[in-house]
Amino acid sequence: MKVIVVGAGLAGTVAAARAHGLGAQVVVVADRPGATALHGGGWAIGPAALVAQGLLPQRLDEALGFVRAGLPALALTRGPFALYDTDGVRRAVDMAPASHAAARKRRGRWLVADLAPLGHPFAEMLGAVGAPVAVDWPRWPGAFGRSFAAAAARFDGVGEADALLAALAAGLAPHGELEGVLLPPVLGLDQPEVHRAVFEEALGIRVAEALGTTPGTPGLRLHRALEAWLARLEIPVRRGRVTALHAEACQVEIEGRLEGADAVVLAVGGRLSGGLDGSEVTPLCLPVRPRPPLDKVAAVRSRGPYWGRLFEGGLRVDDRMRVLGLDGGVIDPHVLAAGDVLAGPDPVATRCASGKAVLSGYLAGENAAKGGPR
Ligand SMILES: Cc1cc2nc3c(=O)[nH]c(=O)nc-3n(C[C@H](O)[C@H](O)[C@H](O)COP(=O)(O)OP(=O)(O)OC[C@H]3O[C@@H](n4cnc5c(N)ncnc54)[C@H](O)[C@@H]3O)c2cc1C
Asked: H-helix or E-strand containing 260?
């Protein structure tokens, strides 16, 4: 039983891992990072919106448990809770990596680390969490601007973690009794939770990171954690673009070369990733419903007649994630879809983004593997 998964974002990786776990031989085809690499760190699950999308959430806990086990480096913690991002915006989230979730339930006195060399008024913007503490940390001279992700990549270098820890300890020492300190998301790209635990142990207080803004550290961490998951399962990832889908033969064309399987899962993302392009058919010639509004500008306005309409359109699927044609029938029982490419309510308005990718990816991988040989 062979399954081809197109796209290696959150939905594609979950689908691939699930199909692999059920015994399928899985191949992933992906060209470049998509929306997943822009994730802010606060997972919007939105169970109510999943129902509106026809994704019955009875399997949600199972799917989320699967993802948490697959991404150990992130130590995903279930909410709901509210967390601040690096611009000081308070966000309601349903799940978050532990390095961010550690900032919930603050009761005592917190300070916010002012890592001045990063050139972002982080501590000033996070005034709602605590007073700024100046950290004398001239290790990375020159302003990184808003790029905490660049700082996080630098942090993984030899000696950087120790240097930041020493600077933090010196900065916090004169401030007496504290419950915790909030940092921007700079604790490396691969093992943030390991570093956070070391910092907590050494400082004797709670340590947490703010959520990211786009583009930022949490998205890059998620992207790398998903890559690591596929690598651990030894699922091959072919770099390349699928240029055509032959649904009836269950074949994809990867830059001119045909590859067949018993099932194909399209986890090609939305408009940002090239899975949709704003027209009535996707680049792989599948029908988009509801039809995209003609007035694209009105469609993205936050208030107005078409609020959120631009992001409603996508592939329609049945409860087994099989892609539906214009007549409402399954185009082929072995062609499935998952993630941002699916039609559904606006993800921002309904606070359902990662939840849709996880649940639909999980179900698509499962049904692809269980669909049997063609
Ligand atoms: C800026 C931004 C910030 C976000 N922040 C959050 C957040 O904080 N919390 C939250 O819950 N959600 C957030 N989301 C939403 C969330 O990131 C997405 O819903 C989710 O990651 C979608 O995953 P996906 O796998 O469906 O798509 P993607 O991650 O976009 O993956 C699709 C992949 O398919 C590949 N692909 C497309 N076409 C082809 C082809 N023909 N051949 C080969 N490969 C192809 C693309 O290159 C891409 O890598 C955010 C989204 C954006 C855009």
From this structure: strand 257-260
